[in-house]
Amino acid sequence: MAENEKNMNTGLVIDEEANKGIGAALSSLWQLLWRDKSGLLGLVMFLIVVFAAIAAPLISPYDPLDQEISQSKEPPAWKEKGDVSHLLGTDTLGRDIASRIIYGSRVSVTVGFLGVSMAFSLGMMIGLISGYKGGRTDNIIMTVVNMVLSLPYLVFVVFVAAVLGNSLLNVILIFGLTDIPVFVRVTRGEVLKLREEGFIEAAKSVGIKTPRIIFRHIMPNLLGPLITLATFEMSAMIFYEAGLGFLGLSVPPSVPSWGNMLAMGRQYLTVYPWMSVYPGLAIVFTGFGMNLLGDWLRDVLDPRMRRMKK
Amino acid sequence: MSDILSVRNLTTRFNTFNGVVHAVNGVSFDLKEGETLAVVGESGSGKSVTMLSLLHLLPKTTTTVSGTAEFKDGEQTHELLSMSEAEINRVRGRHIGIVFQDALSALNPVMTVGEQITESLTTHLGLTHKQAYSHALELLDNVGIAQPEKRFSSYPHQFSGGMRQRAMIAIAIACGPKIMIADEPTTALDVTIQTQIVELTRRLQREMGMTVIWITHDLGVVAGIADRVMVMYAGMPIELAQVDELYENPQHPYTEGLLGAIPKVGDSGAERLLSIPGAPPDLFKEPRHCQFAWRCDYAFDHCWKEIPPDFSVGERHYSKCFYDMDKEKPREQ
What is the pTM of this model? Predict the structure, then answer.
């Protein structure tokens, strides 16, 4: 009973504060996060990865490319024969694994972020046109989308990567372009639903012009579902990038990336497991964090849900 | 008083996968400046569709609208139904405002109430954001929303049902329209709030000199607010009269049935409520005769031969019925 009352009170505070500018909005966001601990955990995990990517030169103990053959194949610090100087051990060329994981996050975050941004923005625009215009335009766009989606994704990506060759830009383009149809589809579905909503009819009934209806009335309603989709797609892209790297089709082998590390550690899996286990854990950590974050975003980004969550 | 709106032979058809729906079949009426016209009828009788047709608010691809609707704006007369999208956009919200039944779904959940009021002001009146803001505060205050500064930046879900309907009204009247169409604005509200909304509309109508079309199926509300009543059945106006005249002297069997079905205070409660037997006609069929004939106690052979014209049955009182209720016999043709 007492707790119920308390919850009701905090709920009210949020509603009041929602009307008091950005500072208050941030504090109410913080309260929402604090109430949903798994969302908070997801956000923290995500921020750790982003921080590692940005601050890599500052926080990594070694240059990820520095080879020290005399110290090669060293196990992690807590193992027998391990040394504190290489916390997670070294690989066959004597490069520090911890440093390579930290630098590897740069590739993952860049590919995930830029790839999703590209798919998000283009996919949303195409989906808006498709859903709002309907008719023939819609038919053509959706046929192309369905064709792309019916291709076996990984095979397609591997093929394109093999043809275009290894480079960070190519990887970003491949993931960005192939992911557009996913965003088109979700956007179009939402637009078809929103187009029939009472408030769109109401906006028309007060003479609001079509561009404004699309950008001010429909688009903000799309952001919730699309941002949620973006987090899930970003974690999927990070997985696929690692997969491509594992196949040797992502960034060139000289660049430290989680996929490249996995590929390199594969042949030593039974003898020197740390070479692939720790980059693997980094991938799992990132994916798990982003999925928690995505779940939480799905709940909060809808103002109606926010009220129900009280 | 002159006519502000003259609708002639408005016909609306929906082209569906299952065939053509004859939603509105030749609606004609005149609207006097400053009056309140109530449009009553059961669900599916074409009340809302008539009004949505006037403002081109039905999906273009599946709807066919014909007829004329002349809207008088001062000295100028505009024909609404032949307008282009850009032209009708300048009428919507500027000269004719609509209040919808369900304010929760008619307000955008992710825009503040204030934004939704100001966007119409900036679109039609060319106000700056600052001017629109202060005008919106006046509007919120005028429709009876307390603390307008605070409520301006609230979202619709933070409003109660009554407040949402008030906000809808504020949006509809923002640009000072000549005509306000109220599409069952009180149906989703409880009775005390209903009364407040009705009172609010009447006050605004008086203050702003608006003409109001009030769509409803609540004959109790009609008696309180309307000057004239148009009764619709199967997409046709079957009786049009001054409100007192209609209640005292209904000239169409359907109107008589509707009025007879209102439970009266003082009834013992032992009798069954009266109802009109049968169901409304199938709108997929093109009407060729009186659409009420199936359910009508007075129907005779001629009723099945053609659609009755509007018979003048009193001062500004029209009925679409071949039977003369006063003389209790079929009309002379």
Answer: 0.79
